[in-house]
Amino acid sequence: MRQARVTYKGEEAGLLTQLDNGSFIFRYYDTWFNTSDKPAISLTLPKVKQEYRANFLFPFFYNMLPEGTNKEVVCYAMRIDKTDYFGLLLNTASNDTIGAVRVMKINTK
């Protein structure tokens, strides 16, 4: 299992988890979900429910990944498998993103 904190404009909004079977869960933190003036992080992850599950990386997060030559360079330099989308997200979306959302790896042992 791998996890990442998802922030919106520097505030922690939720938790993104990849389970051991490869599926994903995104869950808004209670404080973010229950505060009406806090927006959804994406139109595809609205605050109509607190937790979302998928068999693949959510399109919102997938679209944050580098593509083409940039992806090749990052994967080579960081020794990340080209099909490890979550690993790529964890290594690139903590500080090199366009927009308000960032994804920060949680170190677990």
TrEMBL record:
Residues 5-103 form the HipA N-terminal subdomain domain. It comes from the Bacteria. It comes from Flammeovirga kamogawensis. This is HipA N-terminal domain-containing protein. InterPro entries: HipA_N1. Keywords: Plasmid. Pfam families: Couple_hipA.
